[in-house]
Amino acid sequence: MCWIFWYSWSKDAISILVHWLERLEYRWYDSAWIYVNNWKDKTFRARSVWKVSELATKLQSMKDRTYIKGIAHTRWATHGWVTEENTHPHQSNNGKRSIVHNWIIENYSKLKKELIWNWFTFSSETDTEVIVNLLEKHFNWDMLETAQSVQKIIRWAYAVLIVNSEFPDEMIWIRLWSPLIYASSKQWEHFFSSDAQALAWYADNMVYLEDWDVIHIVNDEYNIYANWEVTKRNIEDFDQEALEASKWDYKHFMLKEIYEQPNTIKRTMKWRVNFDAMSLHSETFHGMGNEDYNKIVTVACGTMNHVGWLGTYRLQNLAKISAYSEIWSEYENKPFFINPQSLHIFLSQSGETADTLETLKMVKEQWGKTLGIVNVVWSSIARETDDWMYVRAGTEIGVASTKAFVTPSVLMLLLSLFLWKRRWMRLSKYQQIMRELQHLPSYIETVLDQSDHIRSIAMDLLWYKDFFFLWRWYQYPIAAENSLKFKEITYLHSEAYAAGELKHWSLALIDENFPTIFNLPHDEMYEQNLSNLQEIKARKWKICVIWDRRVEDADWQITIPETIDEIYPFLTAVAGQLLAYHVADLLWNDIDKPRNLAKSVTVK
Ligand code: F6R
Fold first, then answer.
1. 297 has pLDDT over 90
2. What φ, ψ does residue 572 adopt, rounded to 5°?
3. Which residues are catalytic?
4. pLDDT at 242
5. What is the 121 CA–ligand 1 centroid distance (Å)?
6. Among 303, 307, 346, 604, which is best to mutate for testing ligand 1, by the most ligand atoms less than 8 A from CB?
7. Cα distance between residue 114 and residue 189, in whole Å
8. Chain centroid to CA 585: how far?
9. By the number of CB atoms within 10 A of the CB, which of 224, 463, 565, 580 ranks highest?
10. How confident is the model at residue 455 (pLDDT cuts 50, 70, 90)?
11. 149 touches 136 (CB < 8 A)
12. What is the structure's pLDDT at 244?
C-alpha cells in the first residue's frame, strides 16, 4: 500500500527515512523512493521499482550524510503499472508544482479529460498527475488558497503533500479519509507520516489530522486549517511500546504472533474481566451504550469477517439478539434497515481498511449507531465510529492475521456475555464460560506445545494439492478461517464447507487425493459430525482431525485440551494456524508477505 513519510531535521534524513520504509515493508508496495535536501538546498533523489532493500543498498554506499530533510514514499499501483513514470513525486506541466499522494481520486478520469481539453499533457497513467495539474490550473499565487480550492474539486480519498518551487519555504498537506499524523520529538524534529507505527522511538508526541484538514507549513512553523480557519488539534503522547515491532528469535513474524496469543488474550481480558468476582467491568463496554439492542450487524473483510461471523453466533446463542455478519462488498449494496435499537460493529485489525471504512460512512449517513473493534490505536475506524474498543493484540506484522483473529474473537465473546448478563442469563452457564475463559491462555499453550507434531503432519500434507475443511456450528467460521489461512500462505487449494452438506454434493469432490481437515471437538455437534467422519472413512479417504479425545482412527490427529463449546473455537483456530504455517514453511513460501496481498488494504 502507499505510505508517506516526511522528516525534518537535523539528523541523517536518509537513514531515518529508509528505516521507516523498512519498518512498514511488510505491508506490501511495488515501488519506493526518497528525496532529501541538505542545509544548502542541495537535493538528492533515489528510487526503486521493487524492494526497499534495493533502495537501501543503493543508498548505503553514499558518503554524503549531510541531508537533514526529506520525504519517502512507497507506491502500490492502482492507476498505471509499476514503472518509473508512474512513481511519485509528480510534477505539473510547468514543472513548478510537485506532489506526493496516497489513496485514489475517484473522479480522476473526468477531471483528466477536462484538463486535456485545456491543453494539459500527462506523462504518467496515475490519478495523482491530475491533482498536480489542477493545482497549476487554479494557481493564484497563494499556495494555501490554491490547495483549498483543488480540495473541493477532487473526489476522495487522499493525503497529499504539495510543494512549489516558487515558494521553497512553504509546504501544504491536505487530507481526507487517508490517515495522516503530524509528530515531533524533544530534539525539535518534525515528522509527517501516514502511519504512527513507523515513528516509534523517534517521535514523542503526535497530532492526528482530521478529514478536510489543510496543514500549511512555513519554515517548520505549522498551522492547521479547518473550514478555512486556523484550528487546534489534540496533542497526544506517543505509545512507543504498543507500536514497536520486532521478530525476536522467531523464524517468521507469523510464528511469533501465533505464540504471542496466550499473552495477548490475557491483555485483551485484563481490565475487562474480573475473574475473582466472575464479573465483567461495565465501564470497558461503554461502547455498547444503554440500548437494548434488537439487531446487531458486524461488517468486515477477510479474516475479520470470520471474527464477526463467530461473534454473531455467540450473540444469537447467548445474548439472544438477532445478529448477522456481512462482508462490506455485499453489504454496501443492500438496504441497511437501521432502527434505534440496531448496532453496527465494524471489525478491523488495521482500522484503515478502505472498504470497511466506506461502509461505516454509509451507515453513519443513515444515522446508524456504530461501534469499532480495532487493533491499531488512533486508526481511522476507531476515530470514525461512535464508540470503539481496542483489541490490544499488539502490532501484527505477518500479513496473515493470527493473534488479530483470536483476540477480537475473545472480545466478541465478552461482549456477548455482557449483553447476555443484562438480559436473561443462565448463571451456571455464565460461570462455566468464565471459568474456562480464565484457563484459555493455558489451553492455547498446550496447543502450541504440539507445534513439532503438527509439523510432522505438515510434512505428509504438503504433497497434496487440494484440501477440504469441514465443520458444524461454532466451528463453522473457524474452519472457514483455517481454510483461508491455509490457502493464503500455502497457495494450495482448499475449500471449507458445512459437514451437513457433505452428502448433498461435496462427496462428489473428495477422493483419496483430497484430504479432509475436520474440526471435531466434543461439542454439541459431535454425534452428527461423527457420522460424517464415518462417511469419509468408509471410502478410505484421507482425514486429519482436530479433536480433544481419540474415538476413531484417523490418518492424522491433532489433540486439543478438553473444554466447552464456547472455548473450543479458539483452540481449533490456533491448531489450524500452526498447520497452515508449517505447510507453508516446508514449501519455502514467503510467509510474512504472501504474494499479491497487503497487510492494510487502504484502497478500494
Ligand atoms: C487474512 C487477513 C485479511 C484481513 C482483511 C481485513 O489473513 O488478514 O483477510 O483480515 O484484509 O483487514 P483489516 O482487519 O485490517 O480490516
1. yes
2. -65, -30
3. 2, 599
4. 56
5. 39
6. 303
7. 41
8. 23
9. 580
10. very high
11. no
12. 58
Nearest Cα residue to atom 9 of ligand 1: 302
Instruction: Note whether 131 and 236 are same-domain residues.
Output: yes
- Count up the domains in the chain and report the number: 3
Instruction: Tell me which residue has its CA closest to atom 8 in ligand 1.
Output: 401
pTM to 2 decimal places: 0.69
Q: How far is the CA of 549 from the centre of ligand 1 (A)?
A: 33
In the reported structure, the alpha carbon of residue 222 is separated from the centroid of ligand 1 by a whole-number distance in angstroms of 35
Which of 328, 350, 592 best tests ligand 1's pocket when mutated (most atoms within 8 Å of CB)?
350
Report the alpha-carbon distance of residue 129 to residue 107 in Å, rounded. Answer: 13
For atom 5 of ligand 1, the residue with the nearest CA is 302
Which ligand 1 atom minimizes the distance to the CA of 485?
7
**Distance from the alpha carbon of residue 311 to the mean position of ligand 1, in angstroms:** 16
Segments of 429-515 assigned E as strands: 466-471, 493-498
For residue 181 the three cell numbers come to: 499524523
Distances (CA, A) of 579 to 42, 258, 306, 575: 53, 11, 18, 6
Residue 481: name the closest of 53, 297, 471, 15 by CA.
471
Choosing from 1, 401, 407, 589 the residue with most ligand 1 atoms within 8 A of its CB, the one to mutate for a pocket test is 401
Q: Tell me, yes or no, whether 139 lies in a domain.
A: yes
Asked if residue 131 and residue 23 are part of one domain, the reply reads yes
Which one of 196, 225, 243 terminates a domain? Answer: 243
State whether 186 and 334 are in the same domain. no
Residue keyed to cell 475473582: 276
Q: Which helix (H) or strand (E) holds 99?
A: strand 97-102
**Per residue in 485-516, pLDDT tens?**
999 999 999 988 887 777 777 777 777 888 98
Q: Which of 376, 407, 439 is the last residue of a domain?
A: 439
Name the region of 407 (left: φ>0; alpha: ψ -120 to 50; beta: rest). Answer: alpha
Residue 491: how many other CB atoms lie within 10 Å: 13
Rounded to the nearest whole angstrom, what is the distance from the C-alpha of residue 488 to the centroid of ligand 1?
Answer: 11
Residues with CB under 6 A from ligand 1: 301-304, 348-350, 353, 356, 400-401, 488, 600-601
CA 401 to centroid of ligand 1, rounded, Å: 7
CA dist., res. 42 & res. 462, Å (int)? 55
Mean pLDDT value across the chain: 84
Query: pLDDT tens-digit profile of 26-73?
Result: 666 777 777 877 766 677 777 777 777 777 887 777 777 778 888 888
State which residues form the domain around 483.
450-604
Range 254-261 average pLDDT: 93
Atom index in ligand 1 nearest the CA of residue 302 equals 9
Q: Which CA distances in Å does 213 have to 54, 147, 218, 228, 383?
A: 35, 11, 16, 9, 15
- The H or E element that residue 347 is part of is strand 342-348
Longest alpha-carbon distance in the chain: 81
d(CA 497, CA 90): 48
- The total of other beta-carbon atoms located within 10 Å of residue 5's CB is 25
Structure confidence by residue, pLDDT tens digits, 380-397: 888 888 888 888 888 888
Q: What is the per-residue pLDDT across 61-104, written as a single tens digit (0 to 9) for each? A: 777 777 888 888 887 767 777 777 777 778 888 888 888 888 87
- For residue 287, the model assigns a pLDDT of 63
What CATH number is associated with residue 68? 3.60.20.10
Going by CA atoms, what residue is nearest to atom 6 of ligand 1?
301
200/191 Cα distance (integer angstroms): 12
Ligand 1 closest atom vs CA 598: 11
